[in-house]
Each structure stands twice: as C-alpha cells, then as structure tokens.
C-alpha cells in the first residue's frame, strides 16, 4: 500500500486532472461533436478577400511575464507584415483563470477570437462545441503541416479532427544539483535515466546527507512513465479515438511504478508536495535550499530557474538537466508533449476566424518557432526551427533546453 497522502492525492489527480480522461472529469455534459459534423464549418481566405479595413482579433494568452515579451514582439512583427489583420494580446493570470473566464464567456458573450488553453482542458474545450477545428482552416487555406513535430500535432487531434494547434509545448525533465552528485560520488554528467536508477540515486544522496528526491504529486508523471513503456493512461488511445471510459493505469507496470515511488517515500529518500496550491514549487525550491538533490518538473520552468540561479541566491547549486527517467532501460516508448495550444472560436465571424488562422499559422512557422523557442525555452515545434542557427546557438549556450526537444522526438508514441 502507498502512504495515504501519496495514494489519495495521486489517484484523485490521475482521475480528474489528466486532460483527456473521461466525461465525468470534463467541464460540460455536452457531447463532443464528431469529425464529420465539424467538417461542415468553413474557414478560408475568401472571408478576408473583401474586407476594406484590418480585421481586429483578440487572443487571450496565459504566458509568463518573460514569455509575454517574446509573444508581444512576434505579434508586432505579424501586425506590421500585412494590412488585413490586427492582433490584440489580452493577458490572463493563469491557464486556470483563462479556462474559467472562457467558460463564463459562453454565457455572457465575452469571448476571445483565439485562446491559449493548457492540454488538460482539451476534452472540456471540445465539449463546449464553441471552437472551430483548425483542421477546417488547414483545408480551407491549403495549409501543409510540413515538418511540424508529429507527436505535438497529434496530441491535439481527437477523433481524427485537429482541434487546436500546438504552441507553447513542454515536457517533464529531471532537474538535479551536479554539486550534490559529485559529493555523493555520482557522475554529475550521468543523471539517472530509469526509474530504478532514480530510486537508487535518491538513496545514495539521502544517505550522504545531501537530500534525496523532491516528488511532486502530479498525474502527468504517471502518464509519462507509462508512455515511456509505450502504455496508455486511459482507454481509447488516451481518449483520442473516442471518449475515454476507464483508466488503463491499473496494470502491473503502473503498480510497479507506484511501488518504486512508495519505496522512496517510505524510506525517507523522497518527500512529496502537491502539484496545486501554495506548495506546488516546493520540490524546485527544495533543490535550491539543499533539502533535495533532484526533482522532476516541467521544462517550461527552466528559464525561470536559470534566472533565479543567476541572482546568486543559490550558490550551492550547479544545475543539471536530464531526460525524464524511463520505466526501465529496455522501455521503447516516448515522452508525450504537454503545455498549451491555440484554439479558434467558432462564435467569431468568418472574417475573424480566417484572421485568427493567419496568426496561428504565423506563430507555428519555422521562423516564429525558432524565435519563440530561443526566447522562452519552449520546445521548437518544427524540425527546421530546431536546426536554425538561432536555436542551435541557444542550445550550445543552454544545453538543458535541448533535452525536452530530444526526448519528444525520440521513442515510440503510445497511441
């Protein structure tokens, strides 16, 4: 048995916070439209062909402060590059606030033309029946996905319909203190690459008085561990081919994962904190204070972490970034993407929908993704962006940022 706090929090979060889980965890009882019904809505450049003045659209974004600066610069570049569309960025406090405000807007009519939603809102967003699938825009504009990373693109493809375009995509990575590894006699350039190695290293570090593992109770990690072993989190291809109706993490692999995590927690080699609320960053702060020597968290936090380290506030930390530890050395699966995508409102006029697509396509272009990745640390969503001199130079200076891209493009997808 798992310790009660670990078991109860993890399993409840696994049931209700995994993005594409079941209807019981979605925000609406409205059945999601099928791919065939969604195809009836058009989205094409003809809607902009006769406009006499620029079409103004609002994008609700949920980016962190530093990332907003990059997004603002990209928006200004787009606005100045043509005379048919003008984009206004409207900042929201957080992803959760954005989603709650959007849901309220379905009743009060205050809705954006484009909205940035986190991946855990995908099924709920579909259930509102208020979005124009970007697949229709792709067809209407003759858009070719080209070298967009397939795993990122298909993450927002449900029931053979591309609902949204990936934008700010991240992945879970291992953060560790190289100085602590050195003191414990571990290779600071070889972090644990499997879950058993993670358990073993946590014990060595803890026994040497250097702090073990900070373990955040986030269902995302269980989903990712299963994915590295090419296993599903819920049925129906993780809810992609039809609505998920039952969990798939009740097999021997998941039980083994929980057993190994339980071993770390009960032995004192790891301590837990919630993925929500006031202590959601305690695992990262614990590495800074020396309470822990390693933890797992989103690659999207790396920019902020580096900024904090640059202040000199944590002189005893030399940051290392490793790939998410697989279930086992012979695991052939891959890490799934996470983060946010851009959704186009079906409640907007045809001209605004077309204008919204023009901007979304611009943001996912090779040049924009290179700028976005180098400026924020998010995963570049095109191979050509990753191969650009801008991103290559950035990764040479900041190798930790390449980790999430490498693991996203490796291994087999679980669905």
Outline the structure in words:
By secondary structure, the protein is of the alpha/beta class. It contains 19 helices and 13 strands. The protein has helices at residues 4-16, 35-38, 65-81, 95-108, 122-127, 134-141, 150-154, 178-183, 195-207, 219-228, 235-239, 252-267, 282-289, 302-310, 350-363, 366-376, 383-386, 389-397, 402-408; strands at residues 55-61, 85-91, 114-118, 131-132, 157-158, 161-162, 165-170, 172-177, 213-217, 270-274, 294-298, 319-322, 338-345. Strands 1, 2, 3, 4, 7 and 13 form a six-stranded mixed β-sheet that branches. Strands 10-9-11-8-12 form a five-stranded mixed β-sheet, with helices on both faces. Strands 5-6 form a two-stranded antiparallel ribbon. α3 links the parallel β1 and β2 (85-91).
């Amino acid at each position: 048995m798992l310790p009660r706090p670990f078991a109860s929090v993890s399993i409840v979060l696994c049931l209700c916070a995994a993005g594409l889980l079941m209807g019981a965890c979605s925000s609406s009882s409205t059945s999601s439209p099928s791919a065939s019904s969604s195809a009836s809505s058009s989205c094409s450049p003809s809607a902009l062909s006769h406009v006499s003045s620029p079409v103004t659209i609002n994008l609700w974004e949920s980016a962190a402060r530093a990332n907003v600066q990059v997004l603002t610069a990209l928006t200004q570049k787009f606005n100045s590059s043509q005379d048919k569309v003008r984009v206004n960025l409207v900042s929201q406090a957080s992803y959760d606030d954005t989603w709650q405000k959007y849901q309220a807007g379905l009743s009060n009519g205050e809705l954006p033309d484009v909205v940035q939603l986190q991946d855990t809102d995908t099924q709920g967003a579909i259930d509102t029946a208020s979005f124009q699938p970007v697949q229709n825009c792709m067809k209407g504009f003759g858009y070719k996905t080209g070298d967009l990373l397939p795993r990122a693109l298909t993450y927002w493809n449900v029931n053979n319909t591309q609902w949204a375009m990936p934008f700010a995509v991240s992945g879970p990575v291992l953060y560790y203190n190289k100085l602590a590894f050195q003191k414990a006699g571990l290779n600071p350039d070889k972090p644990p690459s499997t879950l058993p190695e993670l358990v073993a290293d946590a014990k060595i570090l803890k026994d040497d008085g250097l702090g073990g593992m900070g373990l955040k109770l986030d269902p995302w990690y269980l989903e990712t561990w299963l994915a590295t072993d090419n296993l599903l989190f819920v049925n129906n291809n993780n809810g992609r081919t039809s609505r998920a109706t039952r969990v798939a993490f009740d097999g021997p692999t998941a039980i083994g994962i929980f057993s190994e995590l339980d071993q770390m927690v009960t032995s004192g080699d790891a301590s837990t904190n919630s993925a929500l609320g006031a202590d959601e960053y305690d695992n990262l702060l614990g590495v800074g204070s020396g309470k822990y020597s390693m933890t797992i968290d989103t690659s999207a936090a790396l920019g902020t972490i580096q900024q904090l380290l640059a202040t000199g506030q944590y002189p005893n930390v030399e940051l290392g970034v490793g790939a998410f530890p697989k279930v086992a050395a012979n695991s052939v699966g891959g890490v799934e993407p996470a983060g946010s995508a851009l959704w186009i409102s079906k409640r907007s006029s045809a001209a605004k929908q077309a204008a919204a697509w023009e901007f979304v396509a611009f943001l996912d272009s090779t040049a924009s993704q290179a700028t976005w990745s180098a400026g924020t640390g998010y995963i570049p969503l095109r191979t050509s962006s990753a191969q650009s001199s801008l991103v290559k130079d950035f990764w040479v200076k900041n190798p930790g940022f390449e980790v999430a891209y490498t693991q996203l493009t490796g291994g087999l997808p679980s669905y």
